Amino acid sequence: MVEAMLTLLPLLACTDGDEPDRTTGDSAADSGIADTADTADTGALADLEPCGFTPMTDLDAAPDVVEVNLTASNFAWDPGTGIPLTGGMAFNEAVPGPVLEAKLGDRVRVHFVNDTDIDMSIHWHGLRVTPEMDGIQQMMGDPVSPGETFEYEYTIVDGGFYWFHTHMNTATTIEAGLYAPIVLHVPDEVAPDCDLPVVLDDVLLDEDTWQIAPPDTAMMKLMGRLGNVLMANGRSGRRVAWTKGQTTLLRLVNSSNARYWDLVLEGHTMTVVGTDGGFLAEPYAVDHLVMAPGERYMVVVEARGEAGESYRLMNRRVQLHEEDGDMIEVDPMGNGENPVMSFVYGVGEVVGAGWRQPAPDVPAWGAAVENLGHHWVLEEDMMGGTVTIDGAAWPDVPMVDVPMDVDATFEVENKSEMHHPFHIHGNRFQVVDVGGEAVAEGQGWKDTFDIPPRTTVRIVSALDNPGEWMYHCHILEHADGGMAGMMTVMEE
Ligand SMILES: [Cu+2]
After folding, report:
1. How far is 239 from 323, CA to CA, in rounded Å?
2. What is the Å distance from ligand 1's center to 420 Cα?
3. What pLDDT, in 10s, does the model give residues 265-286?
């Protein structure tokens, strides 16, 4: 069963999938759902999960303080194969880790315990915290060692959807399961019927043992480690209960080491209402959504299906990964569909909450500003097996110095033949053009941007958060391999 589900097909055996459309699954499953709809604790509905999330327990009763315990440990978790991963790791014994939930203006305190046997630091991806809380100074010499603790504390200055993850040996530790969502509410948010963080990930398993495959090969270090099991919220095959009429806010993040996802939700339109750094001024509808590693999108879906119907969230992008020296694609169904999660309609209908777009924190620019902060050059030497920024690898990439509170355009020039998702810590940015083409939709705040091959992307920032900040490729093999540098936003 497991082997059949996870069979890897050689590239040439693949047929392109048709445009996905509505499906009701197989008839046996349908009748099972219909028969058991009013006794939801048995039969085909038994494995349905409620649509929503349970946040980490807030230990502080004060309304504007969120205080949580966070422990990283070795933890065997099941990615959906039925075989727990003995090399797995987790925050609070869950993959993804539990949701950190707070609201704009909250003070957040995290009592972090490193119960693993390796050095560690936590990065709050996208949060504009202070440099000493960003996980980088620890990475650069003062890590949270095994058995040690660290108190992370910061104020929430942006709303939307973010995530946190380890920031040392990321290719290994994030692959092992050390990542979790962050949900940050804004004052004028009207709660949807369902608020569902969905973490998209893949993991590379050995097909004899179904355990996490050995460390990266030289080719993986160049191409990125692509998994052979695709997961939503830590496992394949999750089934989430929906009711006709309800409004769902999907908070999506791509936590994969190297995989770009192209998401399709059968039978439903996704309306993009937010990007990495908060809500958009103007939502826009999509029939698919490409997400680079590290990127987030918030999308709203109105549930229009009927009782018993099932709709799949699928990745239709096919990428190659290495296996025994050959490049193989992950395509378990052989048709480019690659479902990772299903939404299953129960009986009945509700009058949904609808969606009211929160007031956006609108970016200031529609085009590049004249002041050039820096021009980065990303390169990859396939023969030499190196990835570089500005001709060097970490820690030798020259420091970028820019003054605080002066709007600046940054150019990221990708001279290589691969996509690189470029992530900048500490400040927020707006993408203004890609290869000279102005960005038409989704002018939201970003901290992670896809830089296509042989293309220059221009981004603008107000640089209002001072300090030394890391920037790097979010293909974790590239980051660990030296595709990273530091930028100082200098106070006057
Ligand atoms: Cu890269």
Report:
1. 30
2. 4
3. 999 999 999 999 999 999 999 9
